[in-house]
Each structure stands twice: as C-alpha cells, then as structure tokens.
Prior knowledge:
alpha+beta
Amino acid sequence: MNWIKQRLSTxxxxxxxxxxxxxxxxxxxxxxxxxxxxRRGEIDLIMTxxxxxxxxxVKYRSQSSHGGAAEYFHSHKRRKxxxxxxxxxxxxxxxxxxxxxxxxxxAIQGSEIEWFKGV
Length: 119
C-alpha cells in the first residue's frame, strides 16, 4: 500500500513541476533543464531570465491544513538546494562570483501559484 502512495506522490510532483514550468515560460523564462540530480540534492527547474540563470524549487500542497507550500522550503532544504546549485555551477565550469544567477521558489497551493524571486 505504501508503494501506491509513493508513486502517486511522484506523479503529483511531476505535474506540479510541469505546471510551474509552463507558468514561468508564460512569464518570459526559458527552460534550460529540469530535474537536475546530483549527490548533494536536486534542482526542480533550471531556467534563464534574460542573461540570468534561475534555479527553481517547486513546492506543492493540495491544501494548507499542514502548512502552506512555501513553508516547506525551510533552512535545511535551502542549504541542500544551495549545495546542488553550487555543484551545478562547478560541473558546468561557471564561476559563481561572476555568473548571474538567483534562486526562486514557486509555491503551488491548490490552484494558487506564488512566485518568490531571489529567495
């Protein structure tokens, strides 16, 4: 029974990421890569906004009874995410001190989308 819940959770997460990608593309960003995995963590979406790289974490909650979607990007998750960003930059030979980039959070709660830039 637990495998069903896990599989359903994965499918819901993928749909939320697709929705987030479409939303950001409608707002002028271009997709560079999705689901970047490394041993340090995962980056849901890597996009470009003009000349700036945008690393996007997508959080989805169907309801707020256990807290809002944005609340799930807590300090531990943020540190892990930043570590994955550093790995991506290193792997692609991009110097973080001269490469323009930012970290955004897209919180989806039900049908409502909140976009937090430069978290």
